[in-house]
Design goal:
This protein is mainly α. 84% of the residues lie in helices and 0% in strands. It has helices at 3-10, 14-38, 40-70, 76-79, 82-85, 87-95.
């Protein structure tokens, strides 16, 4: 499977991907704030897991965008899907 085939396959699930990537920072801030009031140790563990879940797709997509721009010479202005290309990186930044 090539990168372009993977992106075409992921286009089928854009709604679910967007929902998950938008919900991650919202849930992290909400649950993290509630857990800090009760047990700070549990809050640190939850936030560490949330950061891991946010960083993996964010960094992967950032590297993929750089690869597509520098080596494949893909025109991202015409072929870019905001949900698939930018939302993972923005979700990572919002969660951090």
């Amino acid at each position: 499977m090539t990168i372009n085939e993977l992106m075409r396959w992921l286009e089928q699930f854009q709604g679910w991907i967007a929902l998950g990537l938008v919900a991650l920072p919202v849930v992290t801030y909400g649950v993290g704030g509630l857990l800090k009031l009760g047990t700070p140790a549990l809050a640190r563990g939850f936030l560490a897991g949330a950061v891991f879940v946010a960083v993996v797709p964010g960094v992967s997509m950032a590297v993929l965008i750089l690869y597509m721009v520098l080596f494949v010479r893909l025109n991202l202005l015409r072929e870019m899907h905001l949900v698939l290309h930018l939302l993972p990186v923005l979700s990572m930044l919002w969660t951090l």
